[in-house]
Amino acid sequence: MGKDTQIRLMSAQLAALMDVGKAFNSVIKVDELLQLVATKTSQLLGADRCSIYVVDMEQRVLWTRASLGTPRIEISLDSGIAGAVVRNQGLVNVPVAYDDPRFNASVDRQTGFRTRSILAAPLFDSEREVIGVLQLLNSRRGQFNEEDEEMLTSLAGFAGSALQNALLFEELKRSFHSVLAVLAATVDAKHPLTAGHTARVAEYTCGIAEAVGMDHNEVEMLRVAAYLHDYGKIGIRDAILTKPDKLTPVEFEEMKLHASKTTELLSRMHFMRQYAAVPSIAGFHHEKWDGSGYPNGLKGDEIPLGARIMAMADVFDAITADRDYRKGVSVEKAMEYMRTQVGTAFDPELFKHFERYISDRFGVTLQPRPRG
Q1: Is residue 87 very low, low, confident or very high in pLDDT (cuts 50, 70, 90)?
Q2: Which terminus in the chain has less CB density within 10 A, N or C?
Q3: What CA–CA distances, in Å, run from 183 to 92, 180, 217, 275, 319?
Q4: Who contacts 115 (Cβ-Cβ below 8 Å, separation ≥6)?
Q5: Torsion from C-alpha of 191, 195, 197, 202, nearest 10 degrees
Q6: Residue 310 domain-assigned (yes or no)
Q7: pLDDT digits (tens, 9 = 90+) for 265-313
Q8: What is the distance between the terminal CA atoms of the chain, rounded to a whole angstrom?
């Protein structure tokens, strides 16, 4: 390789490293960042394929978190080149894959790909524990060289940090949602027949939101709000919450206080920015399109979009689930009733998406609504 060519190659590699560094600071979704690292690594080092593997020490397997040209792959830690990287905690350069006794050809048989050369580096977390592997397949120059090894080691530093962030975020998210489930269960557990109400409202709310076209982050925010939508009921007397008969007008007025109590209690909690609207959406799900709802008598677009969606989910579950004083109605009967509330309780445009979701979710054919 001539000196000028080598300089141009090094300049291109440095520029690509800077691109990855900028992306590391700007890409919020870690999976997107890992996919970018895989793409840039493959381009820089002239490889046919690049994969980022995650280590699962408990199951003693590696699985692909990001990959180019292959579906998700799971391999044993006790075999293969990637497994050797984890076991030895060091880079491995294999010039001819099928000549190396450590090579596991089962993946080639599974994918139909023919591996010739391999370059793989470990991904370390901040404690210098191996949490993954960055692996390249098939150098277009025939074999990977020392410059490739140095470049892969540098890129592995970015990928290791990104992967650690992804794993930590997912663990935090699982913990967060498990706490939400427990909080919701404390309300549902007040009365046996309400068990599962919160989880169903969350499912329906998210399904409607997806039908509306809301993005992933908005849907996740609504999931959190739905799990907490009745949290204010912890401030309502058990005699009312567990009453086996219909509530009297006076008792119903007390029950209605749970909406404002929900907003009040949730407003005391610290929510990260993505979930900042949770208290108002959870507390306003009893507001009605015509302004006759509670707690604030909001009307039309004054009601947050998420609360308008949740209102439909909440009513649908309330009338299809069994209660002490009545049996739940069928999906078709529930929709007949809810159609009578369009324009009063429910946003007419949103209700169209709600009908489509319910039809798909329960496999029912709903009769067209009459015009006018």
Answers
A1: very high
A2: C
A3: 48, 5, 22, 16, 23
A4: 97, 98, 103, 105, 107, 108, 137, 138
A5: 130
A6: yes
A7: 999 988 888 899 999 999 999 999 999 999 999 999 999 999 999 999 9
A8: 77
- Looking at the structure of the chain, the number of domains it has is 2
In this structure, the answer to whether residues 196 and 162 fall within a common structural domain is: no
Question: What CATH number did the domain enclosing 195 receive?
Answer: 1.10.3210.10
Mean pLDDT of the chain: 88
Question: Which of the residues are catalytic?
Answer: 233
Residues 199 and 136 in one domain: no
Do 43 and 151 fall into the same domain?
yes
In a domain, 7, yes or no: yes
* Whether residue 248 sits in one domain with residue 164: no
Say whether both 55 and 119 belong to one domain: yes
Give tens-digit pLDDT for 7-29.
665 566 556 655 655 555 454 46
pLDDT tens-digit map of 47-63: 999 999 999 999 999 99
Domain that holds residue 119: 3-168
Q: Give tens-digit pLDDT for 154-167.
A: 889 888 888 888 88
Q: How remote is the C-alpha of 89 from its chain's centroid?
A: 31
Residue with tokens 């909001």: 298
